[in-house]
Amino acid sequence: MKMYNFNSGPAVLPAEVLQQASEAIIDFNNIGLSILEIGHRTEWFINVLEEARSLVKELMQLDDSYEVLYLQGGATMQFMQVPMNLLDENETAAYCDNGIWGSKAIKEAKLFGQVHIACSSKDQGHTYIPRELSVPQHARYLHYTTNNTVEGTQWHFIPEANVPLVADMSSDIFSREMPFSKYALIYAGAQKNAGAAGTTIVVIKKDILGKVNRTIPSILNYSNHIEAKSLLNTPPVFAVYVSLLTLRWIKQEGGLAEMERRAQERADLFYHTLDTLDAFTGKVDKRDRSLMNATFTTQNPGHEKLFLDICKEHGMVGVKGHRSVGGLRVSMYNSLPLSSVQALCDVMKDFNEKRG
Amino acid sequence: MKMYNFNSGPAVLPAEVLQQASEAIIDFNNIGLSILEIGHRTEWFINVLEEARSLVKELMQLDDSYEVLYLQGGATMQFMQVPMNLLDENETAAYCDNGIWGSKAIKEAKLFGQVHIACSSKDQGHTYIPRELSVPQHARYLHYTTNNTVEGTQWHFIPEANVPLVADMSSDIFSREMPFSKYALIYAGAQKNAGAAGTTIVVIKKDILGKVNRTIPSILNYSNHIEAKSLLNTPPVFAVYVSLLTLRWIKQEGGLAEMERRAQERADLFYHTLDTLDAFTGKVDKRDRSLMNATFTTQNPGHEKLFLDICKEHGMVGVKGHRSVGGLRVSMYNSLPLSSVQALCDVMKDFNEKRG
What we know:
Two copies of one chain form a homodimer. By secondary structure, chain A is α/β, with parallel strands linked by helices. Chain A folds into two domains: 15-253, Aspartate Aminotransferase, domain 2; 255-355, Aspartate Aminotransferase, domain 1, CATH 3.90.1150. In chain A, 35% of the residues lie in helices and 17% in strands. Chain A is built from nine helices and 14 strands. Chain A has helices at residues 15-26, 43-60, 74-86, 100-109, 222-227, 237-253, 255-276, 304-313, 338-355, and strands at 4-5, 66-71, 92-97, 114-120, 142-145, 147-148, 153-154, 165-168, 183-189, 200-205, 280-282, 293-298, 316-317, 328-331. In chain A, the strands form four sheets. The first copy, chain A, has a seven-stranded mixed β-sheet, with helices on both faces. A three-stranded antiparallel β-sheet of chain A has the order 11-12-14. A two-stranded parallel sheet of chain A has the order 1-13. Chain A is globular and about 60 Å long. The interface between A and B is large, with 65 and 65 residues.
């Protein structure tokens, strides 16, 4: 059966990437060894790592004032690593409270310094992106989540603040063109648009480092990783390689402009269908809808399980909402073919006719 | 050309493991999706994770007072995570100083509490394992590295101490039978005998947790990971899967007893050859020689590069010593065939005849 992968992450990857990754596990670049068996300080792997780091900068159009790291631990590790490296105990950082992941980042930041909530959408169950922000002038940075994977909202503008911007881009990195040089720090778990689970991309403007007084454990200190060129200790070799293959694919397909065009095309198709069917309702404000993760419900709550069963029969996985909020969600990352969205829309239309 | 993989880690893996891992990247268990594309909270992955966690306990013959976690960040992350979770600021932990990795662990522990050096082999360049230990009665734990990958020494006995034992077993885990229930905490990067780079196995006796006063960031708190059954956030899915395949292979081949027999056989062959050839010299005390990593030098220092070139011509990789100590080193992990050691010994004998 053909499968349609709407997983929220780990998620769909390009078929070419899977093919190359599979082959490299038997024989990497015809060297007679598996990618899993080569030393991380060999020229073989250093070439992989350096090409990946360089491609991140190229796709983001960043200059040498930035460094790219491939770390471990996911965005959750960054929730604590960011304030540990950037925020002293008596200092304040501003945070946008727009969803479950942002809330988790806030919780960890409070362990290291003062947190000022710049805006919150909690009053409406995080179904919108606030337009008004309050950012203290003395804030060390403003942190926000560019795309809320669980709730299905996305910032379609860049928050205005006269302090360094820090963004968790885990679920929309490399899906659109952005003025990335406006950010002081960007991080993203790779398992959506940048590869497979097991590595986290961290992009740092170097001049924001070295300003806190606390002693930072070696492995958590960004400066140590920068000095070691992202080879402080054994990196997640295979995850970095899959990320490289994914970045090469993005570039070959036309870069971020083309990824954005495809994302818009998929989202237009999906949301247009959603809005014309009585059987389904979108969960968030239309202007803040995510191009990556669409959240919705069945008009009749009793129909939700039935719809999920029908999706399953059609080989559609990942349609269930996040366990914390329920409902339905489909994720439409870079490598999801438009035909998958079309197939889903057909199922939804059919469901609407029979149960609407 | 046939390759002989003496890498110190990431290192040689069983051919069956590579084959299955490669296939799972195209289609995992015939579900029509790649192992890289499935959600980490699906039954598919939870079965993988639970089987892996359970196999670790089975191979180590541990009961339910222990929990097994698959974390990220390597042993280097554990160097700080262990004292952060087990050692209060005014408390003391005892550490054995027997090599580069142990020294790094000591450096991080000092950020969290008092460190008492239980023994050190620094006086002889870490070429032996001390027999005398000094462990304060009030020490929270005794930490040691069971096998020193860089220096080529291994503890062939268990240090005696009336305090909880914590061990970094990164380079000899699952290579021999041991009374694992004597340990309060064991950790190991997977990239030698337990899988590929990208995940760290942590085995914890639960009753040692919850005794420190500091606030621990969510992702670094062992208790949170235990409560979440090692699914606190997105785990390194593929690395856990490769570890599962490796553990299954160990079990199928005969378990730790058989791994130990093979390790002894390989080491006997190598060290016997080494000791009979004038052209080479072992670097460490014979009784403390590692069965995993053999360190040696050419009798004539000028011959080292020549010998490395000859190894390269024969498809032998990973024969160079660690950059911090130089010399030569061959690593002989679980899945290294005896025939690889034989081939190396033949090259050494030939070198000895021509240059000895």
